[in-house]
Amino acid sequence: MSLPNTGDWERDVAALIERVGDDLADGRYPMAMLNNPDLYPTELRRIFGHAWNYLGHVSEFTEPGDYARRYIGEDPFILTRDESGELHAFLDSCMHRGAQFCTAESGNTSHFRCPYHGWTYKNDGTLQGMPHMAEAYQDLDEEEIALTEAHIDSYRGLIFGRIADEGPTLREYLGEFTWYLDVLFGATSEGMTVVGEPHRWEADHDWKTSADNFSGDSYHVLTTHQAGLETETLARGPWEKLDDFPGASYLACTDRHSVGYYLSQEEGTFMGYPDSIRDTLNPALSDEQRELFSRSVFHFGTVFPNMSIIHGIQSGGWGGPWACIRKWNPRGPGTTETTSWWLVPTELADDEGFLEDSHRGWESLSPGGAFESDDLTIWEGISDSSGAVTHELRETRGNMQQGLGAMSDEVETVEDPLHGPAAVTSKGLYFDERNSQTLLRSWYEMMRQGAPES
Ligand code: FES
Ligand SMILES: [Fe+2]
């Protein structure tokens, strides 16, 4: 098959999707799947149109009328809490002629008034009225007109939305990954709280590249972030030296989502949070979940398709600990707008000293920080070269074979309830790419079927 030669867009895309499935069988992938203008519209429809997409955290929407603009794929939604306390996600498109009715990124309002002709909606999406209603709309069925809504549901304060009517419930979609979300977002009784407004920036990389990186790419840290690793103070932490890292690193993937974490040998690390965290632990956690949190140093992962997590100790004088949710909003082939939220345990949300340290940690992973610029340069280069005609004509294959068969030394499969219900959990830093394979397999399943299985 040669992608560019058939002149048949649909057949080319279908063939490329099948190549992803074939190549994955031996840990490869078609390089041409990144920054691909033919594939991209199908991703928007089949993946973002059908997946449960992360939209925001309940702590951002505490009062009736609180709202913020959020995206599913490229579709602009307004996530809001109505006057009765219910959450909604409305497509920002007026039911008269489709104008965007929300002109701010976030705020609080009981009504949205369209700037084109003035139709006005309550924050539950129903029509309030319009100018000259008595003269112009004498037979109008007002009940029938309401803003278009996405289906929404939440887990541990994380609000997700889905466009398609049919599909698995959020619980089914998250599956066994809820076990890890419990530890990440429900370790303390009051859960996590978003602090401040999220950061946003746009860069020329494919959304899949960053989702893959956060799913468990510890391997890149050795090279991409070498300068940071070589600073003497970074080695300080629960380990004496960097060589201790491999014995503390784990990757775990369910059938759709992935997580990675570093653990100390002893309990009591608690991601580096102050000792007071011990008094706030959520009694609903299982003993295994509590032990995992207690020994945790650092977590990261990706909820398919485009929500990533990074949480834990920051050392090297860069502050911390902190928790961050990333959302990789697709903005065209090979272009992503990142939204980055900073979260802290609710019990620590008023602790000024802690917040100052935590904020410095979070900032180190923003475009102005030491680590983000390392990654962005690489990711943009990937996008640039992945769009090459050469990759299409030669059908070149990228490599994610670590962890397959007998490929990787110093990687052992772990079976211990402490590590949760993941399909595969492995120990040994750097040399396992099964989380990346999981991300692409999730991509393949949805692109092939047009929707997720439960
Ligand atoms: S498009 Fe909104 S009132 Fe006309
Ligand atoms: Fe990185």
From TrEMBL:
InterPro entries per the UniProt record, alphabetical: ARHD_Rieske_2Fe_2S, Rieske_2Fe-2S, Rieske_2Fe-2S_sf, Ring_hydroxy_dOase_asu_C_dom, Rng_hydr_dOase-A
Pfam entry (one): Rieske
Residues of the Rieske domain: 53-161
Keyword line: 2Fe-2S, Dioxygenase, Iron, Iron-sulfur, Metal-binding, NAD, Oxidoreductase
Record-linked PANTHER family: 3-PHENYLPROPIONATE_CINNAMIC ACID DIOXYGENASE SUBUNIT ALPHA, CHOLINE MONOOXYGENASE, CHLOROPLASTIC
Family designation: Belongs to the bacterial ring-hydroxylating dioxygenase alpha subunit family.
Name this protein carries in UniProt: Rieske 2Fe-2S domain-containing protein
Source organism per UniProt: Haloarcula saliterrae
Organism classification: Archaea, Methanobacteriati, Methanobacteriota, Stenosarchaea group, Halobacteria
